[in-house]
Amino acid sequence: MNVGLLDICNSVMDTYKIVKEGLRFDGEYINHFSSIIFGGEGKEINIEEIKKIRKYIKKMTSQLSNFRGDTLYMISILISKEENPKLFSDKLININENLQNIGFKDSPGLILASYAICKHGINGLEDKIFNNTKLIYDLLRKEFKDITDENDYLICALLGIKCAKENEDARETGEFVEYMFNYLLSLKHYSKNHLQMLATSVLLNENIESQFEVKDLIRTFREHDMVVGDEFLSLVGAAGRNEDIQNYIFKVNEVIEYLCEEEGAYSYYMDKTFRVMIGISIIEFYNRRIDQNYNKYLEELLAFSVYSFLLSRKQGLFEEAYV
To answer: Looking at the Swiss-Prot or TrEMBL record, what is one Pfam family this protein matches (predicted)?
Structure first.
């Protein structure tokens, strides 16, 4: 393993040990999310700042809002990296209200979309981003009525931001997603809901070659006994690899093996697909250290993936309880 990857792996493990104690009530998987977010960038996590942000957001929002639970935990972790967390929180809450005013439903997905717009939006382009986000969502809803819902808000917002910044026509998004969705249907083991998410997230990939290799990438992961979970497809869709598939998967496996050798938390009692996601995330942060424009929306996609994973586990436990 090269020195850069080794450094990130060690930083992720060191951060995990801190959050496991300081944010232990977040739960194991959100603790790993925190460690990836800060360890991936080599930054120190500020536990007290995160707790202050949570307290402030609770104060400024309704008890019945979705600014609670796992969503609040992950959003506060991301916000704690900002220079002025209070100002950022106020702006995020305001954007969330504006999106609800144009027809979006209050939901965890909308909070993540609001965070993305707050983080990546540009002053003067807010209305354009809002309109793009709504247009893209409506196009997807029209084309994929039975499988488009609040979980798609984040991807729509990211595409809305991209179209506004690059002066692209948001209406063309629907046609591309439909094409990619049909192209990806031959992937077995995945639901149409998650394939639509993958088809949409591929649009965020700056590497055209990677866009059309994503199906082979996912299949090759499975061939190497490293399954990409449904909830993590959007993260893989945006991975703009600068190397061939075999080398990429070799690096991911190398990272996973090192983590498991050094820290028991990665080898025991962890879902295998979550472990693969951690390996992929570390490679993505490494590639972004080399190129700052690489996978610009990595944190948002990671947050969405972890939230979806937690939601899936809770639904599974609920279903088991009533079998």
So the answer is: DUF4003
267 in a structural domain: yes
Which residues form the domain of 176? 89-321
Whether pLDDT at 82 is above 60? yes
In a domain? residue 279: yes
The burial class, CB within 10 Å (0-12 / 13-18 / 19+), for 96 is buried
| pLDDT over 70 percentage in the chain | 97
Rounded mean pLDDT of the chain? 92
Tell me how far apart the alpha carbons of residues 77 and 29 are, in angstroms, rounded to a whole number: 13
pLDDT at position 146 over 90: no
Task: Find out whether 152 and 173 touch, Cβ atoms under 8 Å.
Answer: no
Work out the burial of residue 286: count CB atoms within 10 Å of its CB; fewer than 13 is exposed, 13-18 middle, 19 or more buried: buried
Residue 271 in any domain: the answer is: yes
Q: Which of 90-104, 163-177, 222-236 has the lowest mean pLDDT?
A: 163-177
Q: What would the two tokens of residue 184 be?
A: 């990806």
Structure tokens given for 101: 């005013």
* Phi/psi at 260 (5° precision): -65, -35
Burial (CB count <10 Å: 0-12, 13-18, 19+), residue 153: buried
pLDDT digits (tens, 9 = 90+) for 7-65: 999 999 999 999 999 999 999 999 999 999 999 999 999 999 999 999 999 999 999 89
Asked if 6 contacts 41 with a C-beta cutoff of 8 angstroms, the reply is no
- Pairwise CA distance, residues 245 & 294, whole Å: 17
* Structural domain count, the chain: 1
Distance CA 68, CA 66 (A): 5
Residue 129 maps to a domain = yes
